[in-house]
Amino acid sequence: MQVLSTPRPEDLGLRHLGNKRGLRISVLPNGAVFAIEHEQQGRRIMVNRSLGSPVGGSIGRVCLRIGGSEPLILTVGGAEAQCLIGATSDRFVWQGETAAVTHEVTLQLHPEENLWQWRVWIRNAGADALHCDAILIQDLGLGDPGFLMNNEAYASQYLDHQVAQHSRMGPILMGRQNLAQNGAYPWVAHGCLEGALGYATDLLQLMGPAYRDADHFATPLPVRPCSLRRPRSRPALRPRGPSSVSTRPTIRPLPAKPTSH
Question: How far is CA 166 from CA 94, 170, 171, 196, 205, in A?
């Protein structure tokens, strides 16, 4: 008889970031965000609904939509990103170049607050200006990991969403778990410091009716707004524009994928 065991988190080669407030982010060697968690007074709350997988990646990711004569939709942060993946003492980094567009995505924790930030840096080295936007996709669980893993659909039905409009940042998308987790009701807010143009509260809204069974977006770019979109500096990328990042961290590659047991 052959006995198969499921690897525990400590067997997956995770890299971790953490701060003084109990907020912690872990990333797999394949670049997938394994978990965003908050632990306080013995209570552990997972922000994402599903744990990242060494095989299947994760739902959460950052995508870049590029227009022009040959439109592209790229995953630039997450397991499917065709990037160099690394880590510093305070952030995770995905770096790559596709079709003359250089892109870098960082995921960083605030050292003392329950805040984390995604930052997208892009540069067009081509001859023509390219319109683009960036999309953050984040699955929400907001519950105890055991509660979420036991029945994801059951946990999801208790999520509620509220959208507030900010004069500078545009829509602020807030989510709350309405089924008490050890006496608390966890919540999260997502916004864009440079101004979000649109949002969606369901992945099926983002994909569209024709793509509900597909693992990619429609091209060319949809006209309707979708998810949290953040253009970098300008709606159009200008050829050979200057970098929007003044300092660049020294990046250590993530460890190789561990051998399966």
Answer: 29, 5, 6, 10, 23
d(CA 200, CA 33): 21
Alpha-carbon distance of 113 to 217, in angstroms, equals 34
pLDDT bin (cut points 50, 70, 90) of residue 240 is very low
Q: How far apart are CA 107 and CA 119, in angstroms?
A: 7
Sign of the CA dihedral 226, 193, 249, 21?
negative
Name the pairing type of β-strands 228-229 and 236-237. unpaired
**Ramachandran area for residue 54 (φ above 0: left; ψ -120 to 50: alpha; else beta):** alpha
**Would you place residue 118 in the very low, low, confident or very high pLDDT band (cuts 50, 70, 90)?**
very high
Q: How many whole angstroms separate alpha carbon 47 and alpha carbon 45?
A: 6
Give me the amino acid identity at 261: H
CATH topology of domain 9-241: Beta-galactosidase; Chain A, domain 5 (2.70.98)
Query: From the centroid of its chain, how far is CA 104?
Result: 13
The residue ranges of every structural domain in the chain are 9-241
CA atoms within 13 A of residue 42's CA, in its CB half-sphere: 2
CA angle 154, 59, 84 (to 5 degrees): 160
| Sheet with 15-18, edge to edge strand ranges | 15-18, 23-27, 33-40, 43-46
Judge contact between 94 and 31, C-beta under 8 A.
Answer: yes
SS3 125: coil
User: Confidence class of residue 209 from pLDDT cuts 50, 70 and 90?
Assistant: low
